[in-house]
Design a protein that fits this description.
ten-stranded antiparallel beta sheet, 9 helices, alpha+beta
Length: 267
Amino acid sequence: MPRAVVLRMYTVPHAVRERVELPEGWLAQAREWVLSEAPPDTDIMGRLQYATFDADAAAVEGLLQQWEHLRPGMGVLGAGDPAGVMRAAGLYLTPDQNINIALGVGGPGASDQNLIAGFVELQVVARRIASAAAYAFISIEPTFASFNGAWHDTEWAALVDGPRDMLAEALVDRIVLDAFPYQVLGPAHLETFAEAPSGSCSLSAGRFEVAVGAPQDWLFVGQPDPYRDPRAQWATLRRDPAVALRGRDVLAPWLMTWDQAQALLTT
């Protein structure tokens, strides 16, 4: 599905395999996001692992509570028009590993104004959950591809063999995954590299936010070729092709190659 704005928020990584508790209010936020513009009688589209289903809007709260209890892996709930604008929540919930939640808006009918408005809403959400998040970011992307997975594939990983999958998950409280228009970093980021990046602003509980450029700069003016590595083409397709480079300059201490991330994990 083309045109996406995604907020992904991570809990604090655990060094041992134990049940990771979902921060209070995150499930309610996911439900509110999916249903915020949906009429009461809306059918919700869902996917749990590889099974798809439809559900009544009234069933969403119960579904989310069951997923949180059972920890079945990756699940997605969405509402809206698949040919127009959709809102969705993706939850990666496992019994004894780190967990994350993604909130997204977009679709083939989403205008630039829809995407910017969604970005502003998600920024409010990010600030609201900041005190309980190890790391969070808002990404503007040409499709929902990364939203649909447990791991968020990034342009940085495609370009320089940056950390991905479980290696990145284990370090999200200490590194950043890429330059994004908006990120929330936490105390462990500062412990790793002592000084907050220029232009950052303090939030609650030792968190701070970093914005790079304006959301409009990150919008895409074309779609990547699906037969080539899509993320390697992103820079040429953005409204401002240099905006990610500026962001990586600001966040350079926290950007890692795969080898650097492995070395950091062992320290």
